[in-house]
Amino acid sequence: MLFLALLAAALILPWLGLRDVIANSEGQRTYPPLEMVQTGDWLVPKLNGNIYLKKPPLLYWAVAVSYKALGVGEFQARLPGAICGILFVVSVFRFAREMGSRKQALLAGAIGAANFLLLDKARECQLEAPLVLFVTLALHQWWRALKALESGAQGKAALAVLVGAAWLSLSNLLKFPVPFLFMLSAIIGTAVCMRRWRWLMWAPSWLALVLSIVPVALWAWALTQRLGWELVSSVWLNEAKIHAEKASSLSGGPPWFYVGPALGYFAPWCALYVVLFMKNFWRAQIAEDRLTFHFLWTGVAVPLLLLSLNAAKESDYFISMISLLCILFARAFLFARGYFTMPILGKLTTRTAVVVVLAGYCVAMWIFHPIFEKIDSDGRTPKETAQRTLQIAEREHRPLLYYDMNDPKLYFYMRRIIRNYEENEGEKVVETLRANPRTIVFGEEDTMRQLSKNYPDMQFRELMKTPEKLRQVPYELVASDAGAASH
Asked: Which regions of 35-138 does DSSP assign to beta strands (E)?
């Protein structure tokens, strides 16, 4: 466990704050905690002063605590997720160790530590690393409960599901109700495959599932008391509809959408998929521990099937299945060592081969990945633009406003609430500029061009040179025919 924790830390922690926040999705996680700290309102997440209820607040709370303890910055925002990524690797080891040998557990933990999706998400301020940690811990407890039920120890089983409910409740505070997909798939799938129909009616399990909703339900109740049921329910129903029925350019795809992630995120371990579909492998696994094998494969196959058939798809959804896949791959690896007699396969399944793969991941994470991140960050970061704009605004006492802007990563670097006018509020923007021509306006090139077209006396120029890939940049009013302003 200590070795795997150090390995995961060595892969995740170095240069954690090197890259700026350049993705809107990460901005949506880094900025609301900042408003929580600034305003003291830890109940209602907000983006630039606007209510933001797309996700439950556990990650925001964790990041806000990090801000208060260590200050505001990229490293502090990503630290909770990084810690969860390290703990995830340890949790996979403990899970696999109870299921089988120490060698299997060590290999499963190593495969988890060298999973590209985990490493990528644990190095960002995102929901995925905490989510997969808590889902894994909950799955571990429900597996313990099923094993106890199989041996007739109902008291031990009830205690396990109650502990699992605590972990599941944390998962629900991150992304409710998504964790239920992975929990119910493994629980119901195992009961059906083993024809243990009474397990499906076992009261403590369903009670634990209900209890796991209590924390997120209490938060939702407090929200409705503050904001009203109509507002809160309309936001959540719209989000549910988007994820269940609609597919955007970023979250759509054919039923085979997850084939690519399933191969890419587990490279080079993905070669073991061949073993997973071998009849002899299934026979050996069922003979060794039927319940455990059914728990593992149904916990992966059923969610993957349901996600593949869903209209909206994102590769990130794959992450909650990786703990069970890590254990399956470890079992497949050990099976292949004894089953295949070809010399080349024997060399590929040695301890040396595993060490070489892990060494390659370490080199990539320590050298190549940070370099790539820095290059990518320099081309898209709003950090310098925001800081220079704030310096100008404070030095010259110039007000700021946003025009039709939805850029959470910029909000994070501006670190203050600024009035945002919608696209159909161009007239209000013009009124503001006529009242104070020195106002600095953040907006997109097309939006500002359209504003100048609608109001010919309003002509703008970029306040400073900005990165080419940065869409929303600061503009200032230049001298106009109406003589309304001059810089």
From this structure: 46-47, 50-51
